[in-house]
């Protein structure tokens, strides 16, 4: 299903993720002999945090850990929702089925951990995916565009515009950058033209040349 609905690369990475997860669970199964955390609340909270961070990294790199993760990715592809939210919803069903084996107490602690994991995963993935869209109106559009391309390595597009008051035609710089690149580009623009008008907008999903291919 994953190969048909997503792609072959996703399935290969998911297989690696699934085998790795199983392998490391086997390797660490005896860690409780050396250290035990008896506080279930602390275990649930920090387990959820670490699981959410790990899951976000895995999904962001076009992989999964197998099982319901693949279904969550397919649902995101079809509906545009959140992978973390779909996972949480599906795992609630699994947990409540498991109450027959482990009891209600363990199930409730598990739900705490899963909810925290879902929230952390959403925040981490949104933070990783966030990009900034820049519109720059300047008298030195060619010079600034050349510096952005050469020094930052980002593509630049000129949009033809006209001032409503002056009627003057000019080129507006259109550019999408990462959060890490934003301060450098702002300083570059301000150094070249202190009078430049800069508009910066949030954009969460960017597809195409120069940006990592999305999981969907």
UniProtKB/TrEMBL annotation:
Membrane topology: Multi-pass membrane protein
Residue stretches making up the DUF2179 domain: 154-208
Annotated keywords: Cell membrane, Membrane, Transmembrane, Transmembrane helix
Keyword Metal-binding: no
GO cellular-component term (any): plasma membrane
CDD domains per the UniProt record, alphabetical: YitT_C
Compartment(s) where it occurs, according to its Swiss-Prot or TrEMBL record: Cell membrane
Main location: membrane
Coiled-coil ranges per UniProt: none
Organism encoding this protein: Marinisporobacter balticus
KW Cell membrane (keyword) present: yes
Designated name of the protein: Uncharacterized membrane-anchored protein YitT (DUF2179 family)
Spans through the membrane: 12-35, 41-59, 80-98
Entries under Pfam families matching the protein: DUF2179, YitT_membrane
